[in-house]
Design a protein that fits this description.
The protein has 68 residues and is mostly helical. The protein is built from 1 helix and no strands. The longest helix is centred in the middle third of the chain and has 66 residues. Keywords: Membrane, Transmembrane, Transmembrane helix.
Length: 68
C-alpha cells in the first residue's frame, strides 16, 4: 500500500514537472514570436524612414532643377 502511494506521488510529480516544462517552452516560444514581431516592426519603421528620406531627396532634386 505504501509503495503504491509513493509511486502515485512520484508519477504526479513527474507529470507536474512535464507540464511545467511544456508551459515554460510555450512561454519561450511566445517570447520568441514577440521578439520576431518587434524586429519586423522595427524593420518596417526603418524601411518607412528610408523611403521618406528618398522621397524628400527626390522632391529636393526636382525643386532644385526647377529653380535653376
Amino acid at each position: 500500500m505504501v509503495v503504491a502511494v509513493m509511486e502515485a506521488v512520484e508519477a504526479m510529480a513527474v507529470e507536474a514537472t512535464a507540464a511545467e516544462a511544456m508551459e515554460a517552452t510555450a512561454e519561450a516560444a511566445i517570447m520568441a514570436d514577440m521578439t520576431m514581431v518587434a524586429t519586423i516592426m522595427v524593420d518596417g519603421a526603418v524601411d518607412m524612414i528610408t523611403m521618406e528620406a528618398l522621397g524628400i531627396m527626390v522632391v529636393l532634386v526636382i525643386m532644385i532643377t526647377l529653380v535653376s
